Amino acid sequence: MVRSLWSAATGMNAQQVNVDTIANNLANVNTIGYKAQVAEFKSLLYQTLQTATTTANGDPKPTSSQVGLGVRSSSINSIFTQGSMLESRSDTAFAIEGDGYFAIQGADGNTYYTRNGDFTWATNGRGQGMILTNQDGLPVLDTAGRTITLNSNYVTNKITITGDGTLCYPDANNNPQSLGRTIGMYQFNNPGGLERAGDTLWQVSPASGEALNEATNRNLQRSKMVQGYLEGSNVQVADEMVNLIVAQRAYEMNSKAITTTDEMMQTANNLKR
After folding, report:
1. 111 and 53 share a domain?
2. Range(s) of the domain holding residue 28
3. What is the pLDDT of residues 83-105, one digit of tens each?
């Protein structure tokens, strides 16, 4: 079978993955804490047509004679640049400036990580206190990996935080006093190795390495937590639209290659007439 048919087909498949990735970025342009993705490609095997190429005079050529067999998707990488700071009226809206991540306890008991700081206070189910959770009701963890629970004597809209995430409550003179609990912030040696778990959550993988606690690791540059703000998506709409146009044109060119190959094969078949 003609190689160009299969090569162009692999190009169409690769560009479909590219369009899927771009579409997902555009769909999440307003998702808090979302990090954009980019599709990467690599060429497939090369077939050697001639092992030793020569000129018409029999002199050896400095290059070999090989033809490529198409392309495939090699990876879909995440871009971890800082998103825009969006002001929020919520007292439990927290944004991180820096490389840190919030820690969330999943329903399965495992720890997940996120840049989405849209939290809320919820009752602990027994009416005896309040627990800090994300919008799905999953508990937020402190620097010791424990859920952040307060008794019901506190008015939640008076709770503030410091730059390192320490919870504070005003005293009789309206001066913020530490409650002895600090929202945990964690970093990774290789954030690109984190695996997406959905709902803007990430999970640790062997490629990312274990989570590094900013509160206990002195080798890390500490992140800053800001109350009253959320980190928006880092998707650049203009760039994504340009990438979408390029992917569409590449898809069309590969389709044209298949059509041209089909016309060439039809011409060859008509030679017998």
Report:
1. no
2. 3-80+236-272
3. 999 999 999 999 999 999 999 99
Encode pLDDT of 132-172 as tens digits. Answer: 999 999 999 999 999 999 888 888 889 999 999 999 999 98
Report d(CA 83, CA 6) in Å as an integer: 40
The answer on 76 and 7 residing in a single domain is yes
C-alpha span between 84 and 228 (Å, rounded): 13
Same domain, 265 and 206: no
Of the candidates 79, 102, 130, 107, the residue with the CA atom closest to the CA atom of residue 230: 102
Q: Are residues 189 and 121 in the same domain?
A: yes
Q: Cα–Cα distances in Å, from 89 out to 51, 92, 94, 228, 230?
A: 69, 9, 11, 6, 10
Q: How far is CA 198 from CA 94, 116, 136, 201, in A?
A: 20, 12, 12, 6
Are 142 and 21 members of one domain? Answer: no
Do 79 and 24 touch, CB atoms closer than 8 A?
no
Model pTM score: 0.85
Structure tokens at 36: 């954009």
Q: Let me know whether 95 and 131 are in one domain.
A: yes
